[in-house]
């Protein structure tokens, strides 16, 4: 090797150098509906592209699987779809052709039209870059108080009920209720309201979770009250997961729900 010839850096060395030069990425995005700031995919890309180009590195991505399933029906009658994709990302060094083993990421996108795949791609790519380069955002899944409170409510509502004399309908000997409790029904109503789902919209969501629908003429309160405690707990956990997904899943705006109220607020879930 000539004395003036610079050694060729390996791909891992280049990527670690970029990691050190990158620094933090500010949260320039703002979710008006839920009042929180987030790191936009475009900001992550804008910060990384110059450094990757300078080091002659590209990221090759390919969708390896995708699925589209109905989520719920909006108040305007539109079908909300949930698109799930898996994406493989491979780093390639343009100087040497060196590559790293592909990393696989999952992306989710909710949309009433044809944008679900693109939202899912955006989410998968953003977190592939953010986690790959250890970009800190200050967010931690273990600090999600909304899910923790929902889980605590589900656990409390599912717990044993003390019976002092005899037995009651739906209550086992020893005091544990087979049926959904009032606290569980109230928690389901609360979470549905937080998700902006009215009584009509929440029925197909719950039906999909538990695999059964209310009988003809049966109101929602009676339907939920006739479910088992385990079914109600499962509904609470699933709705809490939907709330978490709505917080962090995609940057692109989800189609808005049309409301009949003049003030724009969705009608309350009138089951409690």
Describe this structure in words.
The chain is α+β, with helices and mostly antiparallel strands. It folds into two domains: 125 residues, 2-Layer Sandwich (Enolase-like, domain 1), CATH 3.30.390; 90 residues, no CATH class. It is 40% helix and 17% strand. It has eight helices and five strands, in the order H-E-E-H-E-E-E-H-H-H-H-H-H. The strands form two sheets. It has a three-stranded antiparallel β-sheet. A two-stranded antiparallel sheet has the order 1-2. The longest helix is centred in the C-terminal third of the chain and has 20 residues. It is elongated. The termini are far apart. The C terminus is likely disordered.
Please supply descriptive tags for the structure shown above.
272 residues; alpha+beta; Enolase-like, domain 1; 2 domains; 3-stranded antiparallel beta sheet; two-stranded antiparallel ribbon; 5 strands; disordered C terminus
Question: What is the strand and helix layout of this fold?
Answer:
Elements (H helix, E strand, L loop, with lengths): L10 H12 L6 E3 L4 E3 L2 H14 L2 E17 L5 E15 L9 E9 L4 H17 L12 H14 L23 H13 L4 H12 L9 H6 L3 H20 L24
Antiparallel strand pairs: 1-2, 3-4, 4-5
Helix pairs in contact: 1-2, 2-3, 4-5, 4-8, 5-8
């Amino acid at each position: 090797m000539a004395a003036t010839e610079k050694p060729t850096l390996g791909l891992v060395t280049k990527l670690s150098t970029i990691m050190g030069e990158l620094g933090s990425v500010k949260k320039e995005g703002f979710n008006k509906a839920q009042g929180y700031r987030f790191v936009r995919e475009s900001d992550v890309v804008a910060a990384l592209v110059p450094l990757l180009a300078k080091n002659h590195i590209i990221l090759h991505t390919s969708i390896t699987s995708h699925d589209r399933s109905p989520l719920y029906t909006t108040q305007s009658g539109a079908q909300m779809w949930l698109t799930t994709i898996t994406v493989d990302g491979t780093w390639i060094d343009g100087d040497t052709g060196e590559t790293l083993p592909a990393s696989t990421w999952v992306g989710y996108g909710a949309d009433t039209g044809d944008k679900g795949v693109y939202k899912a791609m955006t989410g998968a790519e953003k977190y592939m870059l953010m986690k790959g380069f250890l970009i800190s955002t200050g967010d931690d899944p273990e600090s999600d108080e909304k899910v923790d409170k929902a889980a605590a409510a589900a656990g409390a509502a599912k717990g044993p009920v003390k019976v002092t004399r005899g037995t009651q309908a739906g209550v086992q000997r020893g005091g544990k209720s087979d049926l959904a409790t009032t606290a569980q029904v109230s928690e389901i109503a609360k979470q549905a309201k937080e998700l902006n789902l009215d009584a009509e919209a929440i029925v197909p969501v719950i039906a999909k979770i538990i695999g059964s629908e209310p009988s003809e003429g049966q109101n929602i309160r009676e339907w939920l009250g006739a479910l088992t405690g385990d079914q109600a707990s499962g509904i609470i956990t699933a709705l809490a997961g939907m709330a978490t997904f709505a917080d962090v899943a995609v940057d692109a705006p989800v189609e808005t729900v049309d409301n009949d109220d003049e003030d724009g607020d969705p009608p309350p879930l009138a089951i409690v």
